[in-house]
Amino acid sequence: MKFDNPSYQETFDYVQQNPNAVLDSIPDYLLDLWSVKGDKAIDYPYQLFMIMHLARKEKSDLTLEIGVEQLKEQFYNFQIFLQLESLIREYAIDVQKEEIKLFDFANYDKEKIALAKEIIQLSSQLQTI
C-alpha cells in the first residue's frame, strides 16, 4: 500500500517490517509522532493508529471487524503505553518491565494498562510538587 503522506507511509512500513515490535524498541521520533501530547490535536495520531491497523491487517490477513468503542479503547490504551515509555525515556528511569507488543492492540494486558496509568498519575503528581 502506498501513501502520499510520508508519515503515513513510514508508519505503515514500520508496522509491516516490525509487526512484533516491543514498546521500548520504538525509535524516539516515531514515539513522538504517534503520541498525543499536551494540547496537540488527537486527529493525526489517531489517523496514524488507523494506518497501523491497516498495516497489521494487510501483513497477516486479519479481519478488521472492530466496533468504534473498541477502537477508541485500543487507541486510548496505545496512548497510555506511549506516554509511559516517554516518561521512562525522559527521566531515564531504569525499570524492570515485561515486553509489551505494541501493535497487538486487542491483546493488551489490562493489569499492565492499570499499572501504566498509576505510574503516569504518580509522575504528574510529582511534577506539581
Summarize the structure.
The protein is an all-alpha fold. Helix content is 60%, strand content 0%. It has one domain (6-127).
Would you give an account of this structure?
- The chain has 129 residues and is mainly alpha-helical.
- It has one domain (6-127).
- The chain contains 5 helices and no strands.
- The protein has helices spanning 6-17, 28-34, 43-60, 68-90, 110-127.
- It is globular, with a radius of gyration of 15 Å.
- It starts with 5 loop residues before the first helix and ends with a helix.
- The model has no long low-confidence stretch (mean pLDDT 87).
Keywords:
129 residues; mainly alpha; globular
Report the structural category.
Answer: mainly alpha
Number of strands: 0
Largest sheet: none
Helix content: 55-70%
Low-confidence stretches: none
Please write the string of helix (H) and strand (E) elements.
HHHHH
Shape: globular
> Strand share of the residues?
under 5%
Number of helices: 5
How many domain regions? Answer: 1
Rg, rounded, reads 15 Å
N/C terminus separation: 48 Å
Mean pLDDT across the residues is 87
